[in-house]
């Protein structure tokens, strides 16, 4: 008896110490968040940069500024004609949005160009390339942003950078913004994609999705909104509540005088519930599930691949090309991948993508960083930006590094978020490029995004209508919308569904175990 007793003690002791060791070695979500808090804002790109690190390429990926709603919501008091700014009509950039981007352009100029250490103080066509999704608001956001960067009386040259006439807007230097239909998948995760629709239909069958949709708080809130707006389950449900949410936000900003009188029932508490419901839906769309396995598909991989695979690969491929050319230009090594014909890559320093909240979320998801950066879930604010900086360490074998920054909104500076990227060291602002390359490979759409989108799911036919949720406790009849409307806060709504990506348990695990290795290494060496 005594022996058995003793053995139990030993077993218990072992268990406790193993648990403590594990807990100690694996950074938790809280630890990652705390690490973020400690990383100071860096205003000048050279802040905290070790000697030998040369900044080679900067990639700002931003969301457009403040805009009007993209469509009416049930009970809407404002008609499309009343949205007059940005050219008029639904979904256009407002003067507030123009200002937000003008100010972001100013901040970017201060960081990268003010002293001419990285970008020239004047617009140089070879250094800068900007593209936008084919939407008026992302195009005009980019124009406003560049006005904040380069339309400066102190540096722009009259008669060279703009015409020598009185009537010309003072010191305005026009900058080209490229766009094309092909930008759709790279820049807009909600572009039509048959495979994404199939995957979203599967996502709607996941227990986690159904549980959130059918829980009392969700259904009570949805029913309350239907009652107040005279709508039904097709008009307002878990998948389309974003329409009401975005409309309310726009009207609280642009019709603030009447807003409270029009919608007295949209109290702070109701608004908070709506935000919570919609944020959760956004995360599901992005593939953020505790377990995304269904019918042999892992939605935590499949959805991010479609939504963010193209954009992360565009960024990483461009960076690799520019880094190769930097080595070539500076005779740093035997790299032959840069040739005379690579004029574009040989001179490029600033590669802009003007896009949407959904694009930023998709990119952060493929970096497996979204839950740590957008901590309450959902999408980022107007003029939010992720900035990826690529460096080469000329003192240490031309090792390639990157640093990731986040611009939360118009009131923020740039925060270092590199440690949130899967594989990167929790305490280091820089990370080896191999980690972002690994993520680009992991989420690469095989054969290109168009090919992947044409690949419908095999197996049993997917039910494209949402399964009617079990009756919720005290709540109203359950909605069974027939189409899955995809929400795209930024995009012109389509009937396409967009599931989204997220950090899956497996990706979290990879991230956690990578961090653990680093921690263990730090402990022992
Ligand atoms: C943008 O402008 C075009 C015309 O140039 C217009 O047809 C379209 O509705 C506008 N809105 C958006 C969101 O692109
Ligand atoms: C540029 O030069 C022209 C001609 O001298 C002048 O009329 C115009 O005001 C100048 N513009 C600025 C911004 O100085
Ligand atoms: C609307 O006005 C109220 C008070 O008049 C103010 O507290 C609130 O911040 C305003 N909302 C916006 C979005 O400007």
UniProtKB/TrEMBL annotation:
InterPro entries the UniProt entry points to: Acid_Pase_AS, His_Pase_clade-2, His_PPase_superfam, Histidine_acid_phosphatase
Name used for this protein in its record: acid phosphatase
The record's Pfam families line, in alphabetical order, gives: His_Phos_2 (PF00328)
Q: According to the UniProt entry, which residue ranges have a biased composition of type Low complexity?
A: 473-506
Q: Which positions carry the signal peptide feature in this UniProt record?
A: 1-23
Q: Sorted alphabetically, which PROSITE patterns does this protein's record hold?
A: HIS_ACID_PHOSPHAT_1
> Which UniProt keywords are present, listed alphabetically?
Disulfide bond, Glycoprotein, Hydrolase, Signal
Is Disulfide bond there in the keyword field? yes
Segments for region (Disordered): 459-506
EC numbers on record: 3.1.3.2
Task: Kindly give the CDD domains that the UniProt entry links to this protein.
Answer: HP_HAP_like (cd07061)
Q: Name one GO molecular function term.
A: acid phosphatase activity
User: Species name for this entry?
Assistant: Pristionchus entomophagus
What's the superkingdom here? Answer: Eukaryota
Which reaction equation describes what this protein catalyses?
Answer: a phosphate monoester + H2O = an alcohol + phosphate
Family under the similarity heading? Belongs to the histidine acid phosphatase family.
């Amino acid at each position: 008896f005594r022996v058995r007793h003793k053995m139990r003690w030993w077993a218990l002791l072992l268990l406790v110490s193993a648990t403590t060791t594990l807990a100690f070695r694996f950074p938790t979500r809280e630890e990652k968040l705390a690490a973020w808090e400690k990383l100071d804002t860096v205003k000048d790109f050279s802040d905290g940069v070790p000697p030998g690190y040369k900044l080679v390429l900067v990639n700002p990926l931003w969301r457009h500024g403040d805009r009007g709603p993209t469509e009416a919501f049930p009970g809407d008091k404002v008609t499309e004609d009343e949205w007059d700014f940005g050219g008029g009509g639904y979904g256009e950039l407002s003067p507030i949005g123009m200002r937000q981007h003008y100010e972001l352009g100013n901040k970017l100029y201060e960081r990268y160009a003010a002293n001419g250490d990285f970008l020239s103080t004047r617009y140089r066509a070879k250094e800068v390339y900007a593209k936008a999704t084919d939407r008026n608001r992302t195009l005009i956001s980019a124009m406003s942003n560049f006005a904040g960067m380069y339309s400066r009386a102190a540096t722009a040259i009259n008669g060279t950078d703009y015409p020598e006439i009185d009537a010309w807007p003072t010191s305005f230097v026009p900058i080209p913004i490229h766009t094309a239909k092909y930008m759709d998948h790279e820049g807009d995760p909600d572009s039509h994609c048959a495979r994404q629709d199939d995957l979203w239909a599967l996502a709607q069958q996941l227990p986690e999705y159904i549980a959130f949709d059918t829980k009392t708080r969700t259904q009570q809130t949805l029913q309350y909104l239907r009652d107040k707006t005279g709508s039904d389950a097709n008009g307002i449900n878990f998948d389309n509540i974003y329409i009401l949410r975005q409309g309310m936000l726009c009207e609280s900003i642009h019709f603030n005088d009447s807003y409270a009188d029009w919608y007295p029932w949209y109290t702070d508490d109701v608004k908070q519930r709506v935000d919570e419901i919609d944020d959760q839906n956004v995360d599901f769309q992005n593939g953020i599930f505790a377990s995304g396995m269904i019918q042999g598909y892992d939605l935590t991989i499949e959805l991010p691949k479609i939504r963010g695979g193209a954009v992360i690969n565009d960024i990483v491929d461009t960076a690799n090309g520019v880094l190769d050319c930097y080595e070539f230009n500076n005779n740093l090594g035997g790299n032959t991948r840069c040739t005379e014909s690579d004029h574009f890559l040989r001179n490029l320093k600033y590669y802009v993508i003007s896009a949407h909240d959904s694009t930023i979320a998709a990119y952060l998801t493929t970096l497996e960083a979204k839950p740590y950066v957008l901590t309450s879930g959902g999408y980022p604010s107007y003029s939010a930006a992720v900035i990826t900086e690529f460096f080469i360490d000329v003192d240490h074998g031309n090792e390639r590094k990157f640093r990731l920054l986040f611009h939360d909104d118009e009131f923020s500076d740039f925060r270092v978020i590199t440690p949130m990227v899967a594989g990167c060291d929790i305490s280091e602002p820089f990370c080896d490029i191999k980690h972002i390359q690994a993520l680009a490979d992991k989420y690469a759409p095989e054969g290109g995004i168009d090919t992947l989108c044409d690949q419908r799911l095999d197996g049993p036919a997917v039910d494209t209508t949402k399964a009617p949720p079990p009756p919720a406790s005290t709540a109203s009849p359950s909605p069974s919308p027939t189409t899955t409307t995809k929400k795209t806060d930024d995009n012109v709504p389509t009937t396409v569904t967009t599931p989204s990506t997220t950090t899956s348990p497996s990706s979290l695990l990879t991230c956690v175990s990578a961090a653990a290795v680093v921690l263990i290494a730090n402990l022992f060496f």
